[in-house]
Write a structure and sequence with these properties.
globular, 8 helices, five-stranded parallel β-sheet, alpha/beta, Rossmann fold, about 180 residues
Length: about 180
Amino acid sequence: MLSWVSFSARGQNAVTDRSPIFLVGFMGAGKTTVGRVLARQLKYDFFDLDELISIEFGKTVQEIFSEHGEPEFRRLESQAIQLCGDMDHCVIALGGGAYVSEKNRDRLREIGKTVWLDCPLEVCLERLHGDTSRPLLAGEDEMRALLKRRRESYARADYVIEAGEGSPEDLAREIEALLRK
């Protein structure tokens, strides 16, 4: 059972309210990179949900997958998402599969705003080249099929940002503008 207590920042530049901003999307879409920039821009804290799970469990995501299986990781991920309800003034990058669960999507929408970084697969694959830390990273055909299965879930986010081009700073500014509307 995850036990980390709520992380809370007192940002000085609240966008629309103090609820968390969750970045969703495929692996390699730039959630962590853009999330760090967006958080800095908003004077919010930044968290990567996979990193929080790894810290709490004392193992990398890859180790959790290989030793306990994907269902156990998804259970831990859902627990971590439940705990995010106590967080405010923060940007949280979710793992690529977190938003696939309807239960997770409902909870995330209940406690914050969700932004899908919609990035072309070719760009994601280029960014992931040589990365051995991602348990579901496979060949191009398998990745294409995985993204195809996840796209419908990602499309249910509150906002969509085309993330294939543009710097992380440009994307963060675009997200901030959307959230201020």
